[in-house]
Amino acid sequence: MKIAYTGEMDKRLCKEVLGATIEKIVTEDENTIYLDADLMSCSGTLKWAKQHPDRAIDCGIAEGNMAGVAAGLAVAGYRPIIHSFGPFASRRCYDQIFLSGGYGKNDITVIGTDPGVTAAMNGGTHMPFEDVALYSVLPGSTVIDVSVRLSPGDQVHPGGPQAAGPGL
């Protein structure tokens, strides 16, 4: 039996856990490519991405386009991981993820950070309340709502939590 939670909180920032997890996944799987919507400094992946430009793509503030690029990579046999703030990882690219991801049966891992009211300083446009509902109806989707810093390292793995194996 594997004990996942010992009662101790991880002291690292969520972006540190996420950045380390993305680096670990992409380093271990040569078919995984990380795509980001101009938020690598926010996701803790900037330093690693600069060292590995062939494995990390900054798509700019164009989430719909990023989802299309991810779908193309998935069709070509890669395992794309895309990241943006929660409302933009859901609302802005939903149609592309629905059609080119779910309907097309292409494996795309979507990470939406700063959920709910956690990005309050950015205002209402940065507060996703419908993201889980939207992704829950996508064909073949698995939705993981990370609630504590312990979770990202265990849950953010292409193929879902069952593929993640031991966390960081």
Describe the protein.
- The protein is built from 9 helices and 4 strands; from the N terminus they run H-E-H-H-E-H-E-H-H-E-H-H-H.
- It has 168 residues and is an alpha/beta fold.
- It has a single domain, classed as Rossmann fold (3-Layer(aba) Sandwich).
- The chain has a 4-stranded parallel sheet with strand order 2-1-3-4, sandwiched between helices.
- It starts with 13 loop residues before the first helix and ends with a helix.
Identify the notable features of this structure and list them briefly.
40% helix; Rossmann fold; disordered C terminus; alpha/beta; 168 residues
CATH homologous superfamily, by name?
Answer: Thiamin diphosphate (ThDP)-binding fold, Pyr/PP domains
User: How far apart are the first and last residues' alpha carbons, in Å?
Assistant: 17 Å
Counting H and I runs of at least 4 residues, what is the number of helices?
9
Summarize the main sheet.
4 strands, parallel
What structural class do the secondary elements suggest?
Answer: alpha/beta
CATH architecture descriptor name: 3-Layer(aba) Sandwich
What's the number of extended β-strand segments? 4
Radius of gyration: 15 Å
H and E string: HEHHEHEHHEHHH
CATH topology: Rossmann fold
Count of domains:
1
- CATH class division: Alpha Beta
Q: What do the pLDDT scores average to?
A: 83
Describe the strand arrangement of the main beta sheet, using strand numbers: 2-1-3-4
Strand content: 5-15%
What gross morphology would you assign?
A: globular
Low-confidence stretches: 160-168
Percent helix: 40-55%
